Request: fold
Amino acid sequence: MFRYVLGDSVQVMSTFPAASVDFILTDPPYLVGFTDRSGRSIANDMNGNWVLPASREMFRVLKPNSLMVSFYGWNRVDTFVSAWKQAGFRIVGHLVFAKQYASKSAFVGYQHENAYILAKGRPPLPADPLGDVQSWQYTGNRHHPTEKPVASLQPLIESFTQPGAIMLDPFGGSGSTCVAAAQAGRRYIGIELLPDYHAVGCRRLAALRSRHAA
Reply:
């Protein structure tokens, strides 16, 4: 199963059978109204009305005894954690991705990204657990204003799934998680609401398939 779908994630996930994906890795809007220097923005980044419905759908479609890794906005952590717990997830770990640069400065320079590890049921432990502080490569945000590096995503997929597993990203952006899944030998389903970013993701995945076919 290799799909990159254009649409609203809650609506699209509602069409999936329950317990149909092995792992979720996602980077949802941080609820901060972000706009980059070129004026690019992110859909549904102004309010959190979607967080609980999306969390419930993610819990429903995830197989029992499986994991979700979700990035989040640190200053909206109460919204995300409340929704995850209401949906049924347990927090079982936390990841910090250390940057060599500051993406923004206010009271301090912002030099890391965060993600929670969330469990449905009792997933098995990885054979060789990753450290909870991981490195981060600057992407230049060429494809998306909050683009995550494939090199930081792929080890998570390889650690928390087996080859051939189905990974879901309901907030797919420009497709970085799906590229990482494909490179790791996993199947993927990505969902993105905005047509421009969805088109970029489709092009990236097509280019990856072409390289593998060559």
Summary: The two ends are 21 Å apart (CA to CA). DSSP finds six helices and eight strands in the chain. The mean pLDDT is 94.
